[in-house]
Amino acid sequence: MKVLKFGGTSVGSAGNMKRVAEIVQRQPARITVLSAMSGTTDALVKIAAAAAAGDTETVERQLAMLTEKYTACIEGLLVSHREEATERMRTAFDTIRREAAAFEEYRSERIVIAQGELLTSAIFTLYLNECGMKAVCLHSPDFMVTDSEEKVDTERIRRALAGVAADPDTYYVAQGFICTNARGEIDNLGRGGSDYSAALMGAAVDAAEVQIWTDIDGMHNNDPRFVEHTHPIRNMSFDEAAELAYFGAKILHPATIQPCKDHGIPVLLKNTMDPEAPGTTISNRDDDSKSFHAVAAKDGITVIRIHSARMLMAYGFLRKVFEIFEQYRTPIDMITTSEVAVSLTVDNDAHIDDIVRELGALGSIEIERNNSIVCVVGRMEHSDAGLAASVFHSIRNIPIKMISYGASHRSMAMLIETEYKQRTLQSLNDSLF
Ligand code: ASP
Ligand code: MG
Predict the structure, then answer these.
(1) Distance 228 CA to ligand 1 centre (A)
(2) For labelling, which of 35, 88, 140, 225 has a CA lying 20 to 30 Å from the CA of 389?
(3) For the packed helices 56-77 and 40-52, what is the interaxial angle rounded to 10 degrees?
């Protein structure tokens, strides 16, 4: 039993959907989890925003674009099921128009956004049927259910998929990303959430493997968009993959790792455009003896520095600081402390003004925006000498604002101004690998 998840580009055209069907048919995959065709969710987000603002022209323009895209896909893919797919498309777009016309904030937006995954999975299932495969499209919101803290009820997935796991003759297809929320409304797991859906389903059925299919050949040792001469990593541990996904490696949604790690289910990152390429295997096994495996960077980081004489020899100071972040549900990424100051970074500055106002009671506050965290991952045993020296030597000309090392054996992170990011990544790539 395997779970295979295909991203938006992998199902982005009739031709690509045919590739996906071949991949699915070649493997004993029983659940295929799909994103919406590429560009769909972006368009649906625009539609929802336009509907909220009463801008019907934009709603219609985006719908016309989607109609063209899905019609081309249906015509390129289906013959005997073409009429059925076209009807399915009309129903989806009628739903969008209806919600746009009587727009209710949040509820309508979620319904609109869900249509991408619903329509893409319906079309793909019809294609498998047309190829003579016995395929059934599951309705993910029936079993992907979140509570008021947005936590997914994993027991419910397990119960719902028990029959699926026991039926090896059927190709099951499900939507990634979408779910039902605590109020019983259709909702989603956040942008890029299909990977997480697949991981949760994989854990629920105790899958032998979860495969995440995208359009690049695995997780690279550095960001190929900014750096020359990167290469895919064959094997990596769950902890490293989690750090890389969190610190900006776009290939995998950061939440994906946990359910698979908990159940010891390997995650394979594969390329739909080159299915024979080995890709990256993420597992508990870690057979690479090199110290440095990869580098990733995350932009849009804001630093908050709190300077306070009250910290001197005091206890309980950090608790007061953390409570303020907790109150505004803002996670802290990096932290460094001295006897009289503490620096913290956040990537979500939605509540920054409130946080800064409350922190003001504890000391003087400075904030700096437009920073990036650069994270080096690998095997960094605390008994090994010279690891930090090699990293810092290679970027000795770059001003570093914060350093985090020693929290795990897996990573070292630096904060720099975003304008130095590309140089930092390239220098690390040239000297560490
Ligand atoms: N279609 C959704 C998005 O674009 C979910 C996903 O692709 O993972 O964010
Ligand atoms: Mg994705």
Answers:
(1) 28
(2) 225
(3) 160
Full residue range of the structural domain in which residue 311 is found = 292-432
Contact present, 405 and 365 (Cβ < 8 Å):
no
Instruction: With respect to residue 274, please indicate whether it lies within any of the assigned structural domains.
Output: no
The CATH number of the domain where 403 resides is what? Answer: 3.30.2130.10
First-residue to last-residue Cα distance in the chain: 36
Beta strands in 202-329 (DSSP E): 209-214, 235-237, 267-271, 280-283, 292-307
- Ligand minimally distant from the alpha carbon of residue 245: 2
Q: What does DSSP say about strands 292-307 and 364-378: parallel, antiparallel, or unpaired?
A: antiparallel
Q: Are residues 331 and 209 in the same domain?
A: no
Which ligand 1 atom minimizes the distance to the CA of 7?
7
219: left (phi over 0), alpha (psi -120 to 50) or beta: beta
Considering the domain architecture, whether residues 51 and 197 belong to the same structural domain is answered as yes
Cα of 353 vs centre of ligand 2, distance in Å, is 31
In the chain, the number of structural domains is 2
> What 3-state DSSP class applies to 186?
strand
| Residues in the 5 Å CB sphere of ion ligand 2 | 7, 192
Instruction: Decide whether any atom of ligand 1 lies within 6 Å of the 193 Cβ.
Output: yes
pLDDT number for residue 198: 97
- Whole-model pTM: value is 0.87
Choose the final residue of a domain: 154, 185, 214: 214
**Is the beta carbon of 199 within 6 A of some atom in ligand 1?**
no
In a domain, 242, yes or no: no
Decide which of 183, 214, 245 is a domain's last residue: 214
35 lines ligand 1 (CB under 6 A): yes
pLDDT in tens, 417-426: 999 999 999 9
pLDDT at 379: 87
Ligand that lies nearest to the alpha carbon of residue 120, given by its number in the listed order: 1
Q: What is the pLDDT of residues 235-271, one digit of tens each?
A: 998 988 888 888 767 778 888 889 999 999 999 999 9
Cβ(188) – ligand 1 distance below 6 Å: no
Quick check: is 254 in a domain? Answer: no
Question: Is 250 within a domain?
Answer: no
The ligand placed nearest to the CA atom of residue 41 is 1
Question: What CA dihedral angle connects 390, 408, 309 and 359, to 10 degrees?
Answer: 120
Centre of ligand 2 from the C-alpha of residue 196, in Å:
9
Q: What is the CATH number of the domain that holds 70?
A: 3.40.1160.10
Q: Where does the pLDDT of residue 84 fall: very low under 50, low under 70, confident under 90, or very high at 90 and above? A: very high
Answer yes or no: do 155 and 45 share one domain: yes
The closest of 373, 367, 371, 381 to 410, measured between CA atoms, is 381
Does residue 6 have its Cβ closer than 6 Å to ligand 1? no
